Give the backbone structure.
Amino acid sequence: MAVAVGRTYHAPASLAEAIALLAELGSEAGVVAGGTDLVVAARGGRRRLPSALVAIHRLRELAGISGTPSGGLAAGALVTHADLERSDLVRRRWSALADAAALVGSPATRHVGTLGGNLCNASPAMESGAPLLVYEASVELHSTSGTRSLPLADFLLGPARTALAPGELLTGVTVPPQPAGRVGSAYLRLDYRAAMEIAVVGAAALVALDADGRCTEARIALTAVAPTVVRAADAETALRGQMPTAERVAAAAARAVEAARPIDDVRATARYRTAMVPVIVRRVIELALKRAEEPGA
Amino acid sequence: MRYPLTLTVNRVPYELVVEPGRSLLDALRTDLGLTGTKEGCDDSECGACMVLLDGRPVNSCSYLALQAAGRSITTVEGLARDGRPSALQRAFLEAGGVQCGFCTPGMLMSASALLAANPSPSEDEIRAALAGNLCRCTGYRKIVQAVAAAAEEMARPTPG
């Protein structure tokens, strides 16, 4: 059989078929779901389309959102930002992720753009990353040699760089149960306009409170201030085990800059981003605390 | 390599043969001659290329034509019925929601999807639904008024 010249297109009907195709095509293959990053970059001349396009939009088995029996969350790679934004389960229990999804692009971007695409595109400004870091999410990677699960923090290696091996497909995200106590989480970003924008600086927070209102768990992650979304460990340590007074929250937020390694770009200078980290982190902790204290949270 | 593509546009089935990298926008405008859908930024920022894919708005400039296989597309040409503009189209004309007109097809598609899902949207909901559509004449106020007027018109019981 002659080798096909030029670009080829494949639209597998099942996960097994997709995995087999990716194995066969090797490094030629590029996966496309909604195309909101891949096709836009190609049209703009910033990146070439992969020579073998594997369109996975038909794999409905990757389009579900469900709670796991242990109280965690499972979301398939083809779950769209609109699905996350509208899911009662996500809005109620995983609100940082719902906050982030609602901020992506426009209604059209959110209908087409997927969770898996957002993670595999590996932008340091990705909206879904910081919330998933505070939920300590893992990604599920499938290939013909089997399945592996990788913490999101280990999956994201740098701008547009992930641990995805040739032949592997990111099939979904799993999130463990939330910590004990009253839990609240949130995601906020600074941006120039409310739509069709990405974060200048963003932050996600998860807090858990005991009966006395003490902060038994605090997790904070930052967007667009480092080569990947990152946890802010120093800020977390400053809050964990403390009563979350305004002073302690502000002090913890100030520590978040320890995790920031920002760059100058078209949206902001590194100096501005560094200055804004404590501001956005303080706001997002306050919102997470407010949600933790709401009845029924 | 080129691939056969079967899709439905404005309730009419079509068969095409396209390259993998061809956008839905190019398939609609160049292959099918449906030039109502506009190419603005070609970067999925402006919304001039907005069409409905199975009823939901998408930027057709960044959607691969082949991914629309077997699916139903609505373009601005599909809004009129029997040569009569839709209530939304009439409202745009009456409210002065059209200036240069280049953004209008995209605005109409986003607004159509909104009204199909939410027949009585608030002003905030209208603005949110149109957030991915730019009007460089900055005629937003009248566009928003037109969508609100269309919603009211569509809620009115049909006479007779």
About this structure: Residues 1-5 of chain A have pLDDT under 50 and may be disordered. Chain A touches chain B at residues 4-9, 11, 32, 34-36, 39-40, 42-44, 49, 53, 55, 57, 105-109, 111-112, 194-196 (CB under 8 Å). Chain A has twelve helices and 14 strands. Chain A has three domains: 8-55, 64-175, 182-293.
